[in-house]
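The authors assume throughout that readers already know how a fold can be written as discrete tokens. The format is easy to grasp once an entry is in front of the reader. For illustration, here is how one protein appears when written out as sequence plus structure tokens:
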Amino acid sequence: MPYKDIEKRREAARKGSAKWREAHPDRLKAVRARHYAKHAEEQRARAREWYWANWERAQQQKRRRVLRSRYGLTEEQYVALGTACQICGATEDGRTNGKTKKPFRLAVDHVRGSKTVRGLLCGNCNCGIGYFKHDEALMLKAVEYLRLTSRRA
């Protein structure tokens, strides 16, 4: 036995394993795929168990993943955008949405088809812009209509 000290032997085995993994990425991928196929149900059960045991953490991870993939934002950049709707001033103040009881979140308003972020909007303002098809001229017509009809009343 070349190593009398068990820790030295384990360290040498780890280094050898790391070298093999680095030298054979395609074989490693196949080994992992076979292992997953053999133990898929166990791994899914373990993932479900972790998810429900760590629900709040899982939600935070999901939020960070969505911000990064959809808008290219980090959590810090999201926070730097502000804490209130850019139009009406509604805030994320610990309220929850109606039936779902999920925390009230401001929507990231962005240019359609790109990751260019314009700001944060509450759900009502975000939907309003959507209903007007993101058309500034149409929104101005609506403002003019409100001005005219409010004078009559």
Notes: DSSP finds seven helices and two strands in the chain.
